[in-house]
Design brief:
By secondary structure, this protein is an all-alpha fold. It has nine helices and no strands. The radius of gyration is 19 Å and the shape is elongated.
């Protein structure tokens, strides 16, 4: 049986057991990223952290690329959960959700994002699930407003916020950044 990330599941291991091991492995990778930085995520380190043998880890994630793909899938699921927490009655729910998820990301997520981006530089298709997710979200964002160009300006600003934080670029100081974010929220609320 094959998973979307290319991982082959054996007929011998029950699917539920494999899922539990996968969660444990991804949790271990995140723990390493939080403690030591994403650059320290290796198959050996994750196997040790998860308490699994290297073979057990490779059974679930046969390559580091598959492991990073699993982490990306997990991050996208968390993004969908945060989007789902925006009240349904909000007229620009998807756009507001993108802003809130950009603001709520934490250091570990940023470290993992950097590791995934670095891997994607060598293997661009690694980001295909992200591209598909964002294309779907953008379609929803545009359908939720009559001001598609205004919504796109907000989307680009949110992506700028993500990369500013991710790359630790200057942000004008906390006060200016907070005021800019409030202006962006107001812009989103004023879109029709």
């Amino acid at each position: 049986m094959n998973r979307p990330d290319g991982t082959v599941l054996s007929e011998h291991m029950p699917l539920a057991e494999s899922r539990n091991a996968s969660r444990r492995i991804l949790s271990a990778a995140r723990a390493i990223a939080a403690r030591e930085g994403a650059g320290r995520i290796t198959i050996d380190a994750v196997a040790k952290e998860s308490g699994l043998s290297k073979g057990g880890l490779l059974y679930n994630f046969p390559t580091k690329k598959a492991l990073l793909s699993g982490l990306l899938d997990q991050m996208l699921a968390e993004h969908r959960d945060l989007l789902g927490s925006v009240p349904e009655q909000h007229p620009l729910r998807t756009l507001r959700g993108h802003l809130e998820t950009a603001l709520q990301s934490e250091g570990v997520t940023d470290d993992l994002s950097m590791a995934i981006l670095a891997a994607a530089a060598l293997d661009p298709p690694l980001l295909d699930p992200l591209r598909v997710e964002l294309a779907d979200d953008l379609e929803r964002i545009v359908s939720e407003t009559q001001d598609a160009p205004g919504a796109m300006v907000a989307v680009l600003a949110i992506q700028g916020l993500r990369f500013q934080k991710l790359l630790n670029l200057p942000d004008g100081g906390a006060d200016l950044r907070d005021r800019a974010i409030e202006r962006l929220r107001t812009m989103i609320d004023e879109l029709e």
